[in-house]
Specification:
CATH architecture of the largest domain: Up-down Bundle
Distance between the termini: 27 Å
Helix content: 40-55%
Number of domains: 2
Number of helices: 19
Strand order of the largest sheet: 4-6-7
CATH topology of the largest domain: Fumarase C, Chain A, domain 2
Oligomer: single chain
Strand content: 5-15%
CATH superfamily of the largest domain: Fumarase/aspartase (Central domain)
CATH class of the largest domain: Mainly Alpha
Length: about 500
Amino acid sequence: MTFKYGIDHLDLDTVNGIADASIKAELSTEAIEKINISRQRVEKMAASDEAVYGINTGFGPLCDTQITPEETALLQKNLLITHAVGVGEPIAKHNSKLMLVTKVHALSQGFSGIRLETVERMLKFIELDIIPVVPEQGSVGASGDLAPLSHLFLPLLGEGEFWVGDDIKPAAEVLKAHNLEPMELLAKEGLALINGTQFILSHAITGLTKMRYLLDLADLTGAMSIEGMQASESPFREELHATRPFPGNLEVAKRMRIFFKDSENMASHTDCDRVQDPYSLRCIPQVHGASRNAYNHLLEMTELEMNSVTDNPIVISAEEAISGGSFHGQPLAMVLDYASIAAAELGNISDRRCYLLLEGLHGLPRLLTVAGGLNSGMMIPQYATAALVTENKSLCFPPSADSVPTSMGQEDHVSMGSISSRKLNQILGNVEKIFAIELMYAAQAIDFRRPNKCSDIIEENFAIIREKVAKLEEDRLLKPDIDAIITMVKSQAFNVSAH
């Protein structure tokens, strides 16, 4: 498969495939023609006496200052240099690469007026795997991600830094090593490069990729806890969920039924006298399902954004370039905040299941140890889950609800979407750790149900845990066990499919 920039449709798997080099991507003849036509239109406007924002004028509050053709190149250079004021640690190299990939796709649609050679230089960076270094902080997500995108494209000018492998090196040094000369940007190019939502977008892609697996793992983890608690299967019955058919609920309930299929352990307590289970067990379809609904909303908005043009002005014809707000991050910022709440809720309900498993109910020993008193058993890891869920709650404040005016009031309402996107990934990182602790608890509880066997898929995942983490017989240092399962979660070692 070869993806055609500016022509084909990007989705989550394709954009990740291009970024990790498992999918080839190139400019088609059609895309090249669109880029060249758009560039010709810009050159005509740049030479005109009529003021056209961003093409022959200054930027932001200087939009009423016309620029001569002789000043154009210096203006574009100054634009990148003055806007490259990001602070903080670099974002992950993979995220910078996603920014490049999605920016190339947007520019290749033929509405940005950028030169073909500029796009080809960006593709050369991707091909050589020399990826610009981008600081994590400094974007308000309004005129796009101005600071991050300026850092992303400083290396075109021989400024800034590149990732080379895992090392960071000066851009001028790396360009020289590859026999590449610094470029001079012409009319409209600087604005086309730094206006856009690619920083927000790259973090949304990363978050969605992680959240997709964690949603599936949430169901598996919950199912293992239910096996350990010997809770009821009734809340997952198909006829129940048909009466309130939210898509996420239906999917989760179906997955839970598959996880319990042919479980000897679940069948062993069919006639027990328990009437109903606590919400963290009984309401898994409603809670996990609601998080799936939020994920689906973010996925829809993100894939739409991947295939959109988000710079400014937009060159729509030979005569007209419209200055609008296509760079504004609000459409993603709001759904990223929604997804952050959804991710945090996965951790909240997991923590409650951890607590339940420690209470010594329904045949399980208190603190999941038979040697209580002298031994604390698994009491303390739940302190960590309590701390993590509280940290996540503090991260759920919606940055998109805030706005601080910038650019002398010209940019008087901003999205703060870059913060929303980063916070989603922070929350998901905490959820990985919470799930690791629940999985450790669930495996311990299942050991107390032996010789009963669970379903094949539960037994498979139980064995994955036991390869690295032994049953707790008496107190030992648990941090290595927790860290081992966190590594399994991060590497997606668990079989979360339900077919």
